């Protein structure tokens, strides 16, 4: 117990682990290496910063370096861990200047997160083309979108920001038309954000409906919500190329031989993310779904005394029982906190995931949980049966009642709930928590139909949309 | 099988049962006796009609008599069942004219609902004094509140309405100051409604906080919400008397020897309801909690072939496992539907209740579930431990984040969740469904802390208020 607990990465998982560890084991040392300048920022808040809903970038920071210091955590920024030697129990660290040194550990947590993939598009060096996966990109987009004389430099009020990049983007003529490449949840949020900033926005999505993991019902309603606010949604429209030399000028979609060209003066690419695992190359660590580091129910990797958590790690899926990769904020915070406790001597499960996710497009709220995809359900040994209903969010006579679509998927043999989605404009997304709870307690659809959910005219009709969906799906299961 | 399925009462439970029975057993006869003219009305919507949120009384009706007829249900209004002979399997029915006849049954469902109790206050014959437990009272209150020249008689657009009573109340000078006697959920809703109609409203509540079954945290925040909109809330203030001869003039509160008099020109008494069981007097039927008809998990009473459902019947509580009396709309609809199926030959459980309830006071939403009361928990054999937290409803940087108070109660030995309440202004009430689901699946607080609830900045912070509360309560349980 002479060497410290070493944490790689100073965001949600890493700092949750370090903080919990310090509280539980105040006499032991914890060192956190962060390769950049940014720590503890709200990734999920970036689109809302770009939209202008959030005034100052500093509002998106949970902890400042000095607050981390006050917790007794030895935080070292501009220090990238480039290699791990599990047998020797030490890591190799590289400074921003390229110097290297070694650090021994008793326990190691890899919390290196994920990075945006850009598919075939290299946005580097093309003005007006971005990916949105870090705070510097958010600050640059925010500056680019504003007219030079209207930009408020205090919006990027964090010392870590790449000020040169911000200034350069702020000086450019503001764009009028933007392409959002990819209609996943970041794409949907960025589309709303840019439309709120007054741009003419086009969303291009490879497959037939937006938000693929949310299912077709949700995708179609979110598409309607975007279109109603003037966003042009192009489905079955994979982007072939970004066109432009110094500055983006257009995107090309459709047939390679006869592509359609849509002129734009801005593009944000959000086609996916990939776990950061390079530092474990050569260690023989087991990787799992999505190329993420495979961990057990305590967050342990296949390497001794090496843990992983957050967007770089798998988590056990409550429906399939298998390691899954669904990188989201709660998973990272929760796993980090549990590992901090475990390393401090209080073994704590990291918890299952249910694949719960929520997103909004203007006033339309959407959420999903569990396994919605037929193929994935079958692969896990289930025989999925699905129904979708449209039901009122409140008693019909109460003002504001809104059509809410609920999809439920269950296993034919056992009636067990496998997944669900909800979309609507009135308190729709938060209702997913009811289904997440039902999934994690392995409830059947008949049990869900008999749940005593709240009935009060301003919030729910006698039969909540979830109960209506359960009733209909039960009829199908019986039939 | 020569005699019909007889249903007593044509509201939520009775008509749900009759409708389900007709669908499942189309060749068999069902007769529904209703003692009055009204059928299938939304009791819970009446305060919102009085508030003016609902334009027409007919909006509160789910089914018209002709729609019931189209379902093949033999509905007979103005027919009161006054006696049941379980051995002979027949009921005695009295018409509005006082004539009596007998009706044989194969199966009988008692769905007679509940009536408002008025405590020591006889509101009959006193102008301006009301109880709100039927549509005629709602119509009369709505007419009384309006100035004679401003009242729109089309608001009471249902033929069943007591037009003479409406007209008489419409002709009176409109009140300026109202007393609401009783601060339960109907009292809170009526206070909001009358304030919305421009009255100076006083709420008098016997105990120390409003909404007793919701606990003190909720009661206090709802009191603040009412006061913020100009409603005067008097707690620890039992009303001794309504004062006035022909028309209400004041209420008296406080010491009998030295009462305080508050002048009012309107009073609405909402001090409780009582199950309607008179028709079973002399049958020896088992009664249970609250004097309601005790039923088993299929809705069967202690009398052969006699069922009971809705506000006149008990239901099994998911936490205590005992028959409980929590008269609410979903319970009635669900039990009626299940009994209709059972009588038709498809045995169906009526389902447990979790005591889930929700209410709003202007923009403040409150909800409760399970067992919150320490005494009741101990009586059921638990050792209750409770914590209350205040947490944000959204990510802190996201506009509209609102303080949400969550109380959780758990059993010390097992960690099992026994009850909870939630109050706040941003999607607070609907979150209770998560706790209801957790209670009905007998989850423990550690399991709840690890739930994968939705995180998205517009709807929930990383740690949903429910997760924050579970974390804090777990700390207490561990300590």
Automatic annotation (TrEMBL), chains A, B:
Q: Which Gene3D superfamilies match?
A: FAD/NAD(P)-binding domain
What molecular function terms (GO) are annotated for this protein? oxidoreductase activity
Q: Which residues does the UniProt record annotate as the domain Pyridine nucleotide-disulphide oxidoreductase dimerisation?
A: 357-461
Keywords, alphabetical: FAD, Flavoprotein, Oxidoreductase, Redox-active center
- Which cofactors are named for this entry? FAD
What Pfam families does its record include?
A: Pyr_redox_2, Pyr_redox_dim
- Coiled-coil regions listed in the entry: none
InterPro entries per UniProt: FAD-bd_OxRdtase, FAD/NAD-bd_sf, FAD/NAD-binding_dom, FAD/NAD-linked_Rdtase_dimer_sf, Pyr_nucl-diS_OxRdtase_dimer
The family annotation for this protein states: Belongs to the class-III pyridine nucleotide-disulfide oxidoreductase family.
**Name the UniProt record assigns to this protein:** NADPH-dependent 2,4-dienoyl-CoA reductase, sulfur reductase
Q: Which residues form the FAD/NAD(P)-binding domain?
A: 5-314
């Amino acid at each position: 117990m002479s060497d410290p607990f070493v944490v790689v990465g100073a965001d949600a998982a890493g700092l949750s682990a370090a903080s919990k560890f310090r509280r539980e084991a105040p006499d032991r040392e914890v060192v956190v290496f962060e390769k950049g300048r940014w720590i503890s920022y709200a990734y999920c808040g970036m689109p809302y910063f770009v939209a202008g809903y959030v005034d100052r970038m500093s509002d998106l920071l949970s902890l400042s370096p000095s607050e981390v210091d006050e917790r007794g955590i030895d935080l070292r920024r501009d220090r990238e861990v480039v290699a791990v030697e599990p047998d020797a129990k030490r890591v190799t660290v590289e400074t921003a200047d390229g110097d290297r040194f070694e650090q021994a550990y008793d326990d190691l947590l890899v919390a290196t997160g994920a990075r945006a993939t850009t598919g075939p598009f290299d946005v580097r060096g093309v003005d007006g083309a971005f990916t949105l996966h870090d705070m510097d990109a958010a600050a640059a987009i925010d500056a680019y979108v504003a007219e030079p004389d209207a930009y408020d430099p205090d919006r990027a009020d964090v010392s870590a920001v790449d000020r040169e990049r911000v200034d350069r983007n702020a000086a450019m003529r503001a764009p009028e038309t933007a392409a959002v490449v990819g209609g996943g949840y970041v794409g949907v949020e960025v589309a709303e954000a840019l439309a709120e900033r007054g741009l003419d926005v086009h969303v291009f999505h490879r497959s037939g409906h937006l938000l693929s993991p949310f299912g077709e019902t949700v995708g179609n309603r979110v598409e309607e919500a975007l279109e109603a606010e003037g966003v042009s949604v192009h489905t079955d429209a994979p982007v072939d190329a970004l066109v432009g030399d110094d500055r983006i000028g257009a995107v090309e979609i459709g047939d390679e031989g006869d592509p359609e060209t849509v002129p734009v003066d801005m593009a944000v690419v959000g086609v996916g993310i990939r776990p950061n695992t390079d530092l474990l190359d050569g260690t023989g660590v087991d990787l799992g779904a999505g190329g993420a580091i495979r961990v057990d129910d305590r967050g342990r990797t296949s390497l001794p005394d090496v843990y992983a958590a957050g967007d770089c790690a798998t988590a056990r899926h409550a429906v399939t029982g298998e390691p899954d990769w669904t990188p989201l904020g709660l998973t990272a915070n929760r796993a980090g906190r549990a590992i901090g406790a475990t390393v401090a001597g209080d073994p704590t499960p990291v918890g299952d995931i249910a694949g719960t996710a929520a997103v909004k497009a203007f006033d339309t709220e959407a959420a999903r949980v569990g396994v919605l995809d037929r193929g994935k359900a079958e692969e896990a040994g289930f025989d999925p049966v699905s129904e979708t209903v449209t039901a009122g969010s409140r008693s019909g006579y109460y003002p504001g009642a809104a059509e809410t679509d609920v999809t439920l998927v269950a296993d034919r043999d056992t009636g067990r709930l496998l997944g669900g989605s909800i979309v609507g404009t009135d308190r729709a997304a938060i209702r997913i928590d009811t289904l997440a709870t039902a999934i994690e307690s392995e409830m059947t659809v008949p049990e869900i139909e008999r749940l005593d959910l709240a009935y009060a005219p301003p919030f729910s009709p006698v039969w909540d949309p979830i109960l209506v969906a359960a009733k209909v799906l039960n009829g199908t299961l019986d039939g």
